[in-house]
Structure prediction request, 288 residues.
Amino acid sequence: MDILQFEKQYLRLPSAIDEIHDELFDQKGIRVFVKRDDLIHPIISGNKWRKLREYIQIAQFNGYKHLISFGGAYSNHLYALAFAAKELGLASTGIIRGDELTSQSNLYLSQMESWGMNLKFISRTNYQKKLIPKEIDTTNSMIIAEGGYGKMAIKGVSYITKEINQGNFEHIICPIGTGTTYLGLCESTNNIEVHGILTLNNLKEIESNALEVGIPIQRIYDAYIFGKYAKQPEELVNFCQLFEQKHQIKIEPIYTGRMFYGLYDLIRKDKFKPESNILALHTGGLKS
Ligand SMILES: Cc1ncc(COP(=O)(O)O)c(C=O)c1O
Prediction:
C-alpha cells in the first residue's frame, strides 16, 4: 500500500484542534488550543507518524524492503515503527539498548515482536556507538536514527504546520526529546513563536543539532525536566490526572505531562501577553 492510501485509509488526518478552558486562561485573557496528534492512530500516534512519514515514503520510492532503527525498551518510536512496517509490508529491525533484555521483558517488546519486528538487544556501550550488529543484513535497508531524529523527520513535522492556520496562533508549544519535532516547527512556521519544553538535560545537544541542520531555535525551557528523563514525581503524576479530569484529554508524565505542566507555569508567570492564542501539540505517547 502506498503512503497516501495508508494515510487516507488508516489515519485521522488532518488531526483535530480542540480548545481547552481553564479559569487561569480566562484570568490571563489567553486562549489555549490542543493539536490532537494523539488521535491520529492508536499506535502510530502523535509525532510518531509525522517523524516516520518521509522515511517510509523514501523507502517505498527507492524500493527498500527493511527499516532499521534504535531505541530503549519502552521506545514509542520503535513501537510505532514496528506497527507501520507491518502494515506497509516492510521488514523491520529494532536495535534495543540493553543486552540483559529479551522480547519478554515488557509487553511492548513482545507486541513489537509479534508484529514481525526483529529485536536485537545490544550492550549499552555498543548502543552508545550506534553500531549495527554484523548479523543484521543491511542490504536494501533504510537506517533511521534513534527516536527518528533526522532531516527527513524534521521535514515530516512540517505537515503539522500545513494543517494549521498560522494566522490563528501567536505561539506553539511542544515537548522536546530528540528535538526533531521542535526543529520541524521552528523551520516550518512563520510569525509563530515556537516554545519547547525539555524533557531531559540535553539542551547542548539540541543546540548543536540545530546548528548542524541550520535551523535557528527559538524559546526552549529547561525548568520542567523534573531531575531526569522519565522521572515521575507525584506532583507531575497528579498534574496529569487533574488535567485529564478537567479536559478529558489523556496525557502522560514523560512528554506531554511535562509540556502542559510547563505551559501552565509559563501562563501563571505571565510569559504570554493577554489575548495570545497558544497551540499545544499533543505528541501522543499513550501506547495502547
Ligand atoms: C510522546 C512523545 N512526545 C514527544 C517526544 C519528543 O519528540 P522529539 O524526539 O521529536 O523531540 C517523544 C519522543 O520521541 C515522544 O515519544
